[in-house]
Amino acid sequence: MKNLKIYTDEVDELAQKQIAKLLAQPAFAEAKVRIMPDVHAGKGCVIGFTADLGDKVIPNIVGVDIGCGMLTVNLGKQKPDFAALDEIMHCNIPSGMEVHGEPVEPFEALDALHCLPQLEQVKRLRCSLGSLGGGNHFVEVDADTQGNYYLVIHSGSRNLGKQVCEIYQQEAIDRHAGCADRAEREAAMIAELKAQGRQKEIAAAIQAQRAAWNAAQPDVPADLCYLEGEARERYLHDMRICQQFALRNREVMADIIMRRLGLEVQDMFHTTHNYIDHDSNIVRKGAISARAGEKLLIPINMRDGCIFGTGKGNDDWNQSAPHGAGRLMSRSQAFRQLSLEDFQNQMQGIYTTSVTARTLDESPMAYKGMDAILKHIGPTVDVVDIFKPLYNFKAEEAEPSFKRKK
């Protein structure tokens, strides 16, 4: 019997299938798997997944937005000028697909990546430090019940994490399909043909070898192929750098905002939800650390705000907690079924210029409510306060190609 617990009864069918598929893989044969209450289906891996990391690592589990998480900046009694903040968001913080024209600051750790030679558009990656991205990433100002204000930034490692994940997942697939180290093997084949005086056969041999490699199938599902040994260590090294990049990305945005608004930081902390915790050796996909006494923030939706709490260090939960409310609707469902008028009504009283037809997939109605999470997290989180949103910014996505509800 697998060492599995799911901390909710509300698990959709696709998420159930993804959990079963994960548990059938060798990478988690002996793992203690704990699924968080905000569980829902994700791309290739269920969201809300936690497990102790063994000697096999699947890059797709952490996923493409390595190190994604929240930065919470305590402003004390300093209330930001929301109009000025919104101007900063539109003029000084790139969002969506945009990046800065030049790097805001050097991120020298990038040069230590093992996969650096395989990265594309490296200057653009450097210019993405201090940019928000799109999807569910946001900048928000919240207030607690004591009248304190908080700047909250949700973002990750941008395209850097995506490329690193895809490079190493492809390596895992190649290894499981018996075609790892393609470049070295191709070079050896070319050298051998040259040594035999068969230069005219090289082009055809390369074409045949590449066709064979492309046709080869891995011995486990492609999206769950894993790395071991030296390849595992290379991935973990590069993933740590991506986690550092994501953390610094949020801090750079906060620096820009705080400096331009003339505000002072009272306190700040990060809550990361796509990563491997190297202290506890826990992998978390859409889940956060909840060590004893650790500050944490769980965003719910644009209307309801965030849960602020501290962890209880519950080992049965893998010292983890949910990273959000979890979606009720897929993005495509939200675009098709929700109306802009309802979205606007739900956001009354919150300063935002981001309530548009292109952000319908992020409307409060697309997510579970506060109570759906509060009723489950008592064993792992001490709830300190509920932060209510006063300002929200989200990047617009491209116009959906399908017809949406009026």
Describe it for me?
With 406 residues, the protein is α+β, with helices and mostly antiparallel strands. It folds into two domains: 3-171 and 222-320 and 367-394, tRNA-splicing ligase RtcB (Alpha-Beta Complex), CATH 3.90.1860.10; 179-215. The protein is built from eleven helices and 14 strands. The strands form three sheets. The chain has a seven-stranded antiparallel β-sheet with strand order 7-4-6-5-14-12-11. The protein has a five-stranded mixed β-sheet with strand order 1-2-3-9-8. It has a two-stranded antiparallel ribbon with strand order 10-13. Strand 8 (274-277) and strand 9 (282-285) form a beta hairpin. Helix 3 crosses helix 8 and helix 5 (158-176) packs antiparallel against helix 8. The longest helix has 33 residues, at 229-261.
Mean pLDDT: 93
- What's the number of structural domains? 2
Which CATH top level class of the largest domain fits? Alpha Beta
How many helices does DSSP assign? 11
Return Rg in Å: 23 Å
For the termini, the CA-CA separation is 49 Å
Helix-and-strand structural type? alpha+beta
Secondary-structure element order, N to C: EHEEHEHHEEHHHHEEEEEEEHHHE
Can you tell me the CATH topology of the largest domain? tRNA-splicing ligase RtcB
The amount of beta strand, in percent, is 15-25%
Instruction: Name the CATH superfamily classification of the largest domain.
Output: tRNA-splicing ligase RtcB
Instruction: Please name the CATH architecture of the largest domain.
Output: Alpha-Beta Complex
